[in-house]
Amino acid sequence: MNRKQWLLGRREVTLALACVAASVLFQFLSPYFLTGPNLITILRNSVELLLVSLGISFILATAGIDIAVGGALGICAIFVGWSVQGGWPLAAVLLIGPLIGTALGLVSAALIVWGKIPPIIATLGLFGVYRAAIFLLLGGSWISGLPDTLGPAVNTSIGGVPVVGVYVLLCYLVGWLIIRWLPLGPAILATGGNERAARLSGVPIGKTKFFVYGFTGLLVGFAAVLYVARYRNVETSTGGLVALDAIVASVLGGASVLGGKANLLGTMFGVLLVRLLQNGFVLMGAPSLWEQVITGFLLLVVLILDALAGNRRVNGSRLVTMP
Amino acid sequence: MRIALKQIRFSGLLLLWLIALAIFAVWAPAFFSLANFTSILQFSTLLALVTLGQTFVILTGGGGIDLSVGGIVSLSGLFIAFLIKQGTPALAAGIAGVLFGGILGSINGLIITRLRLLPLIVTLGTYYAYNGLALALTGGAPISGLPTSFGIVGQNAVLSIPLHTLLLVLPIFLVMMFILAQTPLGRWIYAIGGNEKAARLVGLPVNTIRLGVYGLSGILAALAGLVADSWLLSARPNIGDNLELLSLTATLLAERASSAVRAVWLVHSLPYCSSPHSKLGSRC
Q1: What is the pTM of this model?
Q2: pLDDT tens readout for residues A51-62
């Protein structure tokens, strides 16, 4: 394979080209698109999704799925909001989000590993539970007008680079180190690639799954901290669609829902493309209600294109096995 | 049929059902009133129809699952209400709506069978697309003010049994049970779900049947949308919310199509224990 083929075969490159093409198109349709403030808005809107998608990429790599991340993000955000409201010290506020997130992630893992429930069913059920819990916890009203406790740790910049960006890059670096350099990485990919073979060759399947769901929970909790720091309020709809967006971004980035693949750089570009398209459609005057439709169709289009390009496996019955 | 009866008799579900009834008897004696019986049936219809479709999808195996049913219920309900508001006769609008639901379901089936994609992820995509379309096209507002004559099926009851239970749910369940238990098609569906490879080698039209069950799931979901329209005399863009989860619960509880209807009643009777009227209030 020569250099040119390698370059074009990389998912990141295709996605970067797609981002550029979409930008040109949107600039043509709306003069506001390629302006500094708007591009910064797109990046800022991507922060939470970048974190959640990193986790989802890990989960997809084990041939799992987590629909409940949106609900988990909402619950974490509520607790972060309450701790800010209660005047907790900064360190405690920073810790509580990831702690609760990890706990919720481990709940998913326990249902999947110990309960032997297919991931889609378990997390779809949990999503319903979390959504109801959010309503019960908030009592239908918002947590709003929070003090800027988190500001010093989140809303600053180091040498012109927003510190949030540094956090995200650090998380991706950790993710890359896990996949590339730790024994855990091959274990994750093997679990998704062929669970039976992995089990027979001594990969600790259960522990691996507990790790990926817990790690995702940690990232979701951290995303909740960043969310509260940015908006300083928590609504009942917080986190709502993030699961779909994250799955779309990861699949765009080259992850397979059949497992065994992880492309973190691709996921990053996938997130950017998703947020860029959503932003572009809003600038074109589409009401925000269309966001869900656009993302849903985007997922279908990517799947269909992938399938037509032959980037798939024939046996399609691994994720959910029913009686 | 005798085998089917045996399965029902020994299923743990029946036991679960009886336990639930016993708990209600102690904690909420009002549960056993005739009026409550009627309202449980009234609420069950949507879920019963959707669950039946879901059951067929899951029975055909291959990771079959239909997450988009709720979106189809909402979208086809809106479509029917829109047609009626445009002056289409109710019957024609109903038939068009059911066909529309069949098309939405077949889109799932076509993508899944032609491209060999995972049903889970495909219907997750259409779940968001359909639900999103229902909200976006209406701006979140219901289409209301359907003529009262349209509400005959949805609002009336004979001998305390809602008309749509008698006219739609029972006949459809009987037909589907017959198909599953007594016809070659039923055997084929079980065979495909049991061992896809063997079914293909015997020459069963696996893809056609899979496409068919997704179409059927769409048709049944659209019927649920029709019932909702007729009952509420308005089409709400979120009427199908959560039906995917409830129908999955009911299907997995039931395991067998022959007892699916029991599962539906069970799932729907549980909320009545704690709050007999809150659910009624939230839906109307």
Answers
A1: 0.77
A2: 999 999 999 999
CB A149 within 8 A of CB A84: yes
CA distance A268 to A273: 9
Which structure tokens are listed for B89? 């006769």
Cβ atoms B213, B60 nearer than 8 A: yes
Contact list in B for residue A257 (CB cut-off 8 A) is 118, 120-121
CB A98 within 8 A of CB A223: no
Domain residue limits at B107? 49-269
**Inter-chain CB proximity B111 and A290 less than 8 Å:** no
Q: Using an 8 Å CB-CB cutoff, list chain B residues near A291.
A: 132
d(CA B217, CA B123): 12
For the stretch A82-128, pLDDT in tens is 998 888 888 888 899 999 999 999 999 999 999 888 888 888 889 88
| B145 within a domain of the structure (yes/no) | yes
Q: Is residue B252 one of the residues assigned to a domain?
A: yes
Mutation for testing the B interface, residue in A300, A304, A306 having most B CBs under 10 Å = A300
Nearest to B116 among A257, A289, A307 (CB): A307
Burial code of A155-185, b = ≥16 C-beta within 10 A, e = fewer? eeeeeeebebbebbeebbeebeebbeeeebb
Report residue A108 as tokens: 């998913």
Cα distances from A204 to residues A56, A123, A184, A273, B181, in angstroms, run 20, 22, 10, 35, 43
For every residue of A174-217, DSSP letters joined together read HHHHHHHHSTHHHHHHHHHH-HHHHHHTT--HHHHHHHHHHHHH
Query: What's the number of domains chain B is made of?
Result: 1
d(CA A250, CA A29): 28
> The complex's ipTM?
0.76
Does residue B181 lie in a domain region? yes
Q: Residues with Cβ < 8 Å from B88, sequence gap 6 or more?
A: B96
